[in-house]
Amino acid sequence: MSEQDAAKDAVGNKSRAKVLMLKGVIVTALIGVLTGGVVLWDDILLHFTDFISTDLGGGFFILANVSFGVGMFALTWRVILAIMHKSARPCSDEELPTITVVVPAYNEGSQVLKTLRSIAASDYPAAKMQLIAVDDGSKDDTWLWMKRASRELGERLDLRRLDRNSGKRRALYEGFMNSTGEILVTIDSDSEIAPDTLRHLITPFVREAQVGAVAGNVRVLNAHQGMIPKMMDVSFTFSFDFIRASQSQVNTVLTTPGALSAYRGNVARPALEGWLNQTFCGRPANIGEDRALTNLVLKAGYFVRFAHKAMVYTEVPVGYKGLCRMLLRWARSNVRETLVMSRFVFTNFRKGGKLGGRINFLLQVFAMTVGEVLKISAVCTLVAYPLLMGGNFLMGAALGGTVPALFYLLRHRSSNCLWAFPYCLFWVLSLSWISLYALCTPHRSSWLTRGLTEEHKAVAEQPDPWTVSVAASARTGLR
Predict the structure, then answer these.
(1) What does the alpha-carbon distance between residue 190 and residue 154 come to, in Å, rounded to a whole number?
(2) Three-state DSSP class for 306?
(3) What's the burial of 446, exposed, middle or buried (CB within 10 Å: 0-12/13-18/19+)?
(4) Where are the beta strands (DSSP E) in 315-372?
(5) Number of C-beta neighbours around residue 437 at 10 A
(6) Residue 296 and residue 349: Cα distance in Å, rounded?
(7) How far apart are CA 373 and CA 383, in angstroms?
(8) Model confidence pLDDT, tens digit, residues 354-378
(9) What is the pTM of this model?
(10) Number of continuous H segments (helices) and E segments (strands) in the chain
(11) For residue 362, how many other CB atoms are within 10 A of its CB?
């Protein structure tokens, strides 16, 4: 073994040791919280009885019980539906329709090359796949990496570049308007797909004519980069393999993710002009393009499904600020498009069952209204009764992480399920404000991410590495 390999092994062993130590801390903390709850149960019950006898405590107790009842109904319903969810048998090459894959990119750097390579390496028939990459006026070296991809992939890749940064929606529109495929696929430029992903993603369209859109299964690409990506991987598994799988059983997945989604062309294309020029409170809707497309498909009377085996691995923020910006963007989009959905979900918007979709909608509205009131009440009670409510928060975080942890364990047979517990506590203490703030500021449309850092600026000023290499080879040849 070389010294370099030995050094890499040493770094890897050190990293694994840290992860094991952190998991040990999580287990120890869980045992401590649960043990403390058992030992102090009588005292907690006594103080809680005194607490609910007050006006504040009584009101909070009623609200908490209503939320608990709705939560248990939602959990039971979703468990039943998720168990029923089965992946369709993948189509043969002959059955597969033509597709257009659109990859919008902004300040993505070298990652866009890896994304395009993963798409080109798909086992989807090359003759049936059109690949379009759109640079949304990047200020870094993204365009150079896209040109390198073009040199590698040749005529398989169609490159397009917007003169200025106009937003992801405009970049997707550019790709859609130049598409030739029967199915339109969107893949984020910070994501990579498995070889069989596209085949699984497209299969539901072939199996059933009423399917208008399909959501892919999103996992975290950079889970090795810190605690936040590790926690988000557990959160994503629960959000997709459980929540969206259950929504798929009633043909009403509420959001097709930008990281990987597909839309029936003859359903999406007629609505593109309105989608591009969508406004909210008189302002251009620059965020939530994926949720808006989902609503258009549902409103047109088509099903939206989830493809469990259509895997995509996407990068997530590694720092707190970046995570907050991403979640805030999603939350504001959720508020806007829930309002849009309210205009048609109780109409006869499609043939077949609509009750499941309406239940999904009502659960979301409940979380956006009663759930936020409960948060405010919890903060008030925490201020008034810090010891009692502080202990309850810890117990709640331990119990709240149990379902996602068990689901992740059953799905992946991995001790990484333990990250569900710190994430639940992290969410309560540091992220729960986001949905309330989004509810108060849904009119704001700033993207909040993909800014050009000083590092990006420095890289952007460097020449194309491929061009430098060619030039160097030419000079060597002249000598």
Answers:
(1) 21
(2) strand
(3) exposed
(4) none
(5) 14
(6) 11
(7) 16
(8) 999 999 999 999 999 999 998 888 8
(9) 0.86
(10) 20, 10
(11) 14
